[in-house]
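Sequence in, structure out. Go.
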Amino acid sequence: MTEPRVAIISPNRSAWSETFVRAHIERLPGVKLVLMDDHLPRRDADGAPLLSDTLRARLVRRVRGIGPESALRRAVTERLRRARIEVVFAEYGPTGDAMLPICRELDIPLVVQFHGVDAYHEKLLREHDGYTALLKGAAAILVVSREMQSHVIALGADPSKVVHNVCGIDLDRFRPGRPEQADKTFLFVGRFVDKKAPQLVVLAFARALESDQWLRLRMLGDGPLLESVRQMIGALGIEGSVELLGVGSPDEVAAEMARSRALVQHSVTTASGDREGTPVAVMEAMAAGLPVIATRHAGIADVVVHETSGLLCEERSIDVMAGHMVRLAAKPDHAARMGAEGRRIAERDLRLDDRIDTIHRTLLRAVGR
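Output:
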């Protein structure tokens, strides 16, 4: 059987820095074309623009009455045609929405992957008419949590088209550690944004610190809430117990996990409806044999089993999360047991190659092979 010729479309010019997109590009069989930079892509994988922006090219388009968006759509269509693409794999819902008319024109199937904010944010849903056309026209829809699966079906997707598939983790990079031998250090990994609520992690940690002065919190990441978190740490007087580490590479994340007692993440649903898919940091921690302290939010409860591979609480339950930290600090044997179970679950359910294989099989079905 010959592999179908696949085009991957990603809205972010830095797609190679998104671990899941990079994995799709590098590991999916049959990838012949990668286009990126906006939902209707503007550049190829090398960063070269698809549409010439020289004065002569702009004048020709003006004389012919072709607007910039129409010209770009023509350029994308031509690239797909020249590469003899047989199926398009779109990262994020708005990308799928932008590519749907082109796929229809070329009569090739479209498979779209929803990741998180793209499925839930109220503004995006309004802008894309609840993805009505996309959910009807896509050959398949991949989602990263059970909650998201129910959500897109409620939006109107045919249940037979919806495939649950988390992003998956490279288990060779995140080797199982010994959390019971680590200091009483808790780790936060992620963007400092509303849905990850790093400020609530700090509040829960400050509450836990009242019970055990030897606790430490290390926070890896960056984002718009970073300065607010910094100010909160100062106002609480816990600067000596919390360290803001900035952005880390995947290898640095793995190293931090290897020296921590547990991962802490307090994900919440925002006022705009934004929420997580299944957070990558949570799955990486499980692969690293690290217990997870988190909220029962979106796909977290799909992979973290309360009292088995971690400890869960309701959103904004600061006292409960603080109690979970105190417990794992005082009982390293519990951390060891939960971390080992998390690794076992990761090996069974979160292996990256298995998740890539699910995408591959979905693309094969989309083209009828």
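Check: Residues 332-349 form the longest helix (18 residues). The domain at 6-168+351-366 is CATH 3.40.50.2000 (Rossmann fold).
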